[in-house]
Design brief:
Elements lengths: L3 E5 L22 E5 L14 E5 L6 H8 L5 E6 L3 H6 L3 E5 L5 E4 L4 E4 L7 E4 L3 H7 L2 E6 L3 H9 L3 E5 L10
Parallel strand pairs: 4-9
Antiparallel strand pairs: 1-2, 1-5, 2-7, 3-4, 3-10, 5-8, 6-7
Length: 172
């Protein structure tokens, strides 16, 4: 059975109610969840722009060089301007019953439900830097995400780019 999660800086959510998020292109209200494999991409403050990439079954030479540079199986990056917020973020993980959920964007690990969802549990994620290190994820801090966004897209790796609208502008 698939384990599904929701990450929030609010530890008091008693029930998730379907809604249309302000940043969503969806018109139907949903409760969103992420699967276990993609959950580490959410070990960040909510609005933090980030790039996450990891090895796929058939990765390219370019993908190999991007990952092996730091020796990790997965790479996450955030901008220097977000480091303080990252270090002080109090993040919580809600585990959700997977039964009412259906896959929405399987490659991204996104699942949706149309019903109210009462969480099974809520726990603090803990220190985000420590969590990354214990999971063997290289955490890279960069001045500007755009070169890494471009490298991840071209790499042949699986990737997730979250909140890029909050990133520094692309330098030309």
């Amino acid at each position: 059975m698939q384990r599904l999660f929701h990450f929030s800086q609010d530890p008091t959510i008693e029930c998730f109610v379907p809604h249309v998020a302000p940043t969503s292109t969806e018109k139907e209200p949903y409760v969103w969840a992420v699967d276990e494999m993609h959950a580490p991409s959410y070990w960040f403050p909510r609005d933090c722009p980030r790039v996450c990439c990891w090895a796929a079954d058939s990765q390219s030479e370019r993908g190999n060089s991007l990952l092996t540079l730091g020796g990790a199986h997965r790479l996450h990056a955030l901008e220097l301007d977000w480091v303080d917020r990252f270090r002080h973020c109090q993040l919580y993980v809600y585990e959700l019953d997977s039964a009412p959920f259906a896959p929405q964007v399987p490659d991204a690990g996104y699942w949706v439900a149309r019903d109210n969802i009462v969480p099974l549990s809520v726990k603090p994620v803990g220190d985000l830097l420590t969590r990354h290190a214990e999971a063997g994820i290289e955490l890279r801090i960069v001045k500007n995400l755009w070169p890494l966004i471009d490298a991840a897209v071209a790499s042949g790796l699986e990737f997730s780019i979250i909140r890029k609208a909050n990133a520094q502008p692309r330098h030309l």
